[in-house]
Design goal:
The protein has about 200 residues and is an all-alpha fold. The chain has 9 helices and no strands.
Length: about 200
């Protein structure tokens, strides 16, 4: 299916793009949410990813397997751009007079998750990772790409993916420990990462 779809996408077939969206939009959305931590931003990433895919269709290799790594690579770049824009927006807001109130959406997002405490722990842990580590974690652990596909999506060597993922896992194991458990010698730290691997891919 993907070989035929790849050919049709490269040719600019509109129906093929509809099929592409139907097949991978949910996967792109899940990946985008894991990178941004925000439902609305994830929706923006999905829209921009498929717009970029249409624009970049002639750069798609003629041969290959699933188109999912290609789309997730585009989504990763889109998420980076959205984060940059958000930082610029935050800087602009910080320059506003102090008496102006800016709405904080963090609690609204947290309210849509059953376990707010777990969400806070995950977000705090992820914030301590470098951007490159978060991206590899999202591709390999949450989206289920193998090392080669993740390397292709990010445009880096397979060895780089392996080392970044290893560092990310070690940091998460450390930072996902509940505060009261830190400093103890015993305990299974690997279980702290397990909830991150669950859910739809």
């Amino acid at each position: 299916m993907d070989t035929t779809l790849r050919t049709r996408v490269r040719a600019g077939d509109h129906e093929a793009f509809g099929d592409l969206f139907d097949a991978y939009a949910r996967s792109v959305y899940n990946h985008a949410f894991r990178l941004t931590g925000d439902w609305a931003s994830a929706e923006d990433v999905v829209s921009l990813t498929f717009l970029d895919a249409w624009r970049l269709r002639d750069r798609l290799d003629e041969e290959g397997g699933s188109l999912r790594p290609w789309l997730l690579g585009i989504a990763t770049n889109v998420a980076r751009n959205i984060r940059r824009a958000a930082r610029r927006h935050s800087a602009a807001v910080a320059r506003l007079p102090r008496d102006e109130t800016v709405r904080d959406f963090a609690e609204e997002v947290a309210g849509r998750v059953d376990d707010a405490a777990q969400l806070a722990l995950v977000r705090t842990a992820l914030a301590k990772l470098r951007r490159a580590e978060r991206e590899v974690l999202a591709l390999c652990v949450w989206s289920g790409l193998d090392y080669a596909a993740a390397a292709d999506a990010l445009g880096v060597p397979v060895g780089t993916v392996r080392s970044r993922l290893s560092r990310a896992r070690k940091k998460l194991a450390k930072h996902m420990e509940p505060p009261e458990a830190r400093g103890q010698i015993r305990g299974d730290r690997t279980t702290a990462v397990r909830p991150l691997r669950e859910g739809n891919r």
